[in-house]
Protein backbone atom coordinates (compact mmCIF):
# COMPACT_ATOMS: atom_id res chain seq x y z
CA UNK A 1 0.00 0.00 0.00
CA UNK A 2 2.76 2.42 0.96
CA UNK A 3 4.64 1.71 -2.25
CA UNK A 4 1.51 2.63 -4.23
CA UNK A 5 1.24 5.91 -2.35
CA UNK A 6 4.94 6.61 -2.91
CA UNK A 7 4.62 5.97 -6.66
CA UNK A 8 1.49 8.14 -6.82
CA UNK A 9 3.30 10.93 -4.95
CA UNK A 10 6.31 10.70 -7.25
CA UNK A 11 4.12 10.78 -10.36
CA UNK A 12 2.02 13.65 -9.04
CA UNK A 13 5.12 15.83 -8.78
CA UNK A 14 6.11 15.10 -12.38
CA UNK A 15 2.70 15.49 -14.01
CA UNK A 16 1.14 18.92 -14.54
CA UNK A 17 -0.72 20.01 -11.42
CA UNK A 18 -1.81 23.10 -9.55
CA UNK A 19 1.23 24.64 -7.87
CA UNK A 20 1.70 23.09 -4.42
CA UNK A 21 -1.31 20.76 -4.77
CA UNK A 22 0.71 17.57 -4.32
CA UNK A 23 0.51 14.52 -2.06
CA UNK A 24 4.02 14.90 -0.60
CA UNK A 25 2.88 16.37 2.75
CA UNK A 26 0.24 13.66 3.12
CA UNK A 27 2.78 10.99 2.14
CA UNK A 28 5.15 12.28 4.83
CA UNK A 29 2.37 12.31 7.43
CA UNK A 30 1.27 8.79 6.41
CA UNK A 31 4.82 7.39 6.33
CA UNK A 32 5.45 8.89 9.75
CA UNK A 33 2.25 7.41 11.15
CA UNK A 34 2.49 3.90 9.72
CA UNK A 35 6.12 3.27 8.84
CA UNK A 36 8.38 5.43 11.00
CA UNK A 37 7.11 3.88 14.22
CA UNK A 38 8.94 0.67 13.30
CA UNK A 39 11.51 1.77 10.71
CA UNK A 40 13.46 5.03 10.93
CA UNK A 41 13.67 5.20 7.14
CA UNK A 42 9.94 5.87 7.11
CA UNK A 43 10.88 9.42 8.08
CA UNK A 44 13.10 9.66 5.01
CA UNK A 45 10.73 8.17 2.42
CA UNK A 46 9.11 11.51 1.48
CA UNK A 47 12.55 13.13 1.21
CA UNK A 48 13.68 10.33 -1.10
CA UNK A 49 10.58 10.84 -3.29
CA UNK A 50 11.29 14.58 -3.35
CA UNK A 51 14.94 14.06 -4.25
CA UNK A 52 14.25 11.58 -7.06
CA UNK A 53 11.51 13.77 -8.53
CA UNK A 54 13.79 16.81 -8.22
CA UNK A 55 16.27 14.94 -10.42
CA UNK A 56 13.65 15.24 -13.18
CA UNK A 57 12.15 18.61 -12.30
CA UNK A 58 15.39 20.34 -11.42
CA UNK A 59 17.05 21.58 -8.28
CA UNK A 60 17.05 25.14 -6.98
CA UNK A 61 18.75 27.15 -4.24
CA UNK A 62 20.26 24.77 -1.68
CA UNK A 63 19.15 26.87 1.31
CA UNK A 64 15.55 26.94 0.10
CA UNK A 65 15.63 23.22 -0.67
CA UNK A 66 16.90 22.50 2.84
CA UNK A 67 13.92 24.36 4.31
CA UNK A 68 11.46 22.58 1.99
CA UNK A 69 12.92 19.15 2.74
CA UNK A 70 13.09 19.95 6.47
CA UNK A 71 9.44 20.98 6.42
CA UNK A 72 8.44 17.64 4.93
CA UNK A 73 10.57 15.86 7.53
CA UNK A 74 8.52 17.68 10.17
CA UNK A 75 5.31 16.29 8.60
CA UNK A 76 6.78 12.78 9.08
CA UNK A 77 7.64 13.52 12.72
CA UNK A 78 4.10 14.83 13.26
CA UNK A 79 2.74 11.61 11.75
CA UNK A 80 4.99 9.55 13.99
CA UNK A 81 3.51 11.00 17.18
CA UNK A 82 -0.12 11.20 16.03
CA UNK A 83 -2.68 8.71 17.28
CA UNK A 84 -3.60 7.59 13.75
CA UNK A 85 -7.01 6.27 14.78
CA UNK A 86 -8.17 9.80 15.60
CA UNK A 87 -9.14 11.40 12.29
CA UNK A 88 -9.54 14.85 13.83
CA UNK A 89 -5.93 14.77 15.06
CA UNK A 90 -4.71 13.38 11.73
CA UNK A 91 -6.33 16.28 9.86
CA UNK A 92 -4.97 18.60 12.55
CA UNK A 93 -1.51 17.20 11.80
CA UNK A 94 -2.01 17.91 8.10
CA UNK A 95 -3.16 21.44 8.92
CA UNK A 96 -0.20 22.00 11.25
CA UNK A 97 2.24 20.67 8.66
CA UNK A 98 0.80 22.94 5.96
CA UNK A 99 0.96 26.01 8.20
CA UNK A 100 4.55 25.26 9.20
CA UNK A 101 5.49 24.64 5.54
CA UNK A 102 3.94 27.99 4.54
CA UNK A 103 5.62 29.94 7.35
CA UNK A 104 9.04 28.30 7.02
CA UNK A 105 9.37 28.22 3.24
CA UNK A 106 8.15 31.76 2.71
CA UNK A 107 10.38 33.05 5.48
CA UNK A 108 13.26 31.31 3.68
CA UNK A 109 12.26 32.86 0.34
CA UNK A 110 12.21 36.28 2.01
CA UNK A 111 15.52 35.66 3.78
CA UNK A 112 17.55 34.04 0.99
CA UNK A 113 16.20 35.55 -2.23
CA UNK A 114 16.72 39.05 -3.62
CA UNK A 115 12.99 39.41 -4.36
CA UNK A 116 11.95 41.09 -1.11
CA UNK A 117 13.22 44.00 0.95
CA UNK A 118 14.72 42.71 4.19
CA UNK A 119 12.19 44.36 6.45
CA UNK A 120 8.96 43.46 8.21
CA UNK A 121 7.10 44.87 5.21
CA UNK A 122 9.10 42.66 2.85
CA UNK A 123 8.37 39.60 4.99
CA UNK A 124 4.66 40.40 5.09
CA UNK A 125 4.70 40.86 1.30
CA UNK A 126 6.33 37.44 0.95
CA UNK A 127 3.62 35.86 3.08
CA UNK A 128 0.84 37.76 1.31
CA UNK A 129 1.97 36.82 -2.19
CA UNK A 130 2.28 33.18 -1.10
CA UNK A 131 -1.33 32.86 0.09
CA UNK A 132 -2.56 31.20 -3.16
CA UNK A 133 0.22 28.61 -2.80
CA UNK A 134 -0.66 28.09 0.86
CA UNK A 135 -4.29 27.49 -0.09
CA UNK A 136 -3.22 24.84 -2.63
CA UNK A 137 -0.84 23.23 -0.12
CA UNK A 138 -3.55 23.13 2.52
CA UNK A 139 -6.20 21.69 0.20
CA UNK A 140 -3.74 19.17 -1.24
CA UNK A 141 -2.58 18.05 2.20
CA UNK A 142 -6.11 17.70 3.55
CA UNK A 143 -7.38 15.94 0.42
CA UNK A 144 -4.51 13.46 0.10
CA UNK A 145 -4.37 12.87 3.86
CA UNK A 146 -8.05 11.89 3.75
CA UNK A 147 -7.46 9.64 0.74
CA UNK A 148 -4.32 7.94 2.10
CA UNK A 149 -5.41 7.42 5.70
CA UNK A 150 -9.01 6.66 4.71
CA UNK A 151 -8.08 4.14 2.02
CA UNK A 152 -5.61 2.41 4.32
CA UNK A 153 -8.02 2.16 7.22
CA UNK A 154 -10.73 0.91 4.84
CA UNK A 155 -8.37 -1.69 3.40
CA UNK A 156 -7.30 -2.75 6.88
CA UNK A 157 -10.87 -3.12 8.04
CA UNK A 158 -12.37 -4.80 4.98
CA UNK A 159 -9.69 -6.18 2.70
CA UNK A 160 -6.91 -7.33 4.99
CA UNK A 161 -9.16 -8.57 7.74
CA UNK A 162 -8.35 -12.09 8.82
CA UNK A 163 -11.34 -14.34 8.73
CA UNK A 164 -11.84 -17.11 11.25
CA UNK A 165 -11.31 -20.55 9.80
CA UNK A 166 -13.73 -23.36 10.26
CA UNK A 167 -11.96 -26.16 12.05
CA UNK A 168 -13.50 -29.58 11.74
CA UNK A 169 -13.12 -31.88 14.68
CA UNK A 170 -13.36 -35.66 14.51
UniProtKB/TrEMBL annotation:
Keyword annotations for this protein? Membrane, Transmembrane, Transmembrane helix
Under Pfam families, the record lists: DUF6580 (PF20221)
Q: Which residues form a coiled coil?
A: none
Specify the superkingdom. Answer: Bacteria
Q: Where are the transmembrane segments?
A: 20-36, 43-60, 66-82, 89-113, 133-155
Annotated InterPro entries:
DUF6580 (IPR046487)
Name-wise, this protein is Uncharacterized protein
* Species this chain originates from: Candidatus Wildermuthbacteria bacterium RIFCSPLOWO2_01_FULL_47_18
Q: What is the lineage of its organism?
A: Bacteria, Candidatus Wildermuthiibacteriota
Amino acid sequence: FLSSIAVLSFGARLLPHLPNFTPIGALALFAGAYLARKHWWGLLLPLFIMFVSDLFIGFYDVKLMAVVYGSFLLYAFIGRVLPKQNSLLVFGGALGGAVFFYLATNFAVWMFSPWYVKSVEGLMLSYTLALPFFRATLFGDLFFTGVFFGAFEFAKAYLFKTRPRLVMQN
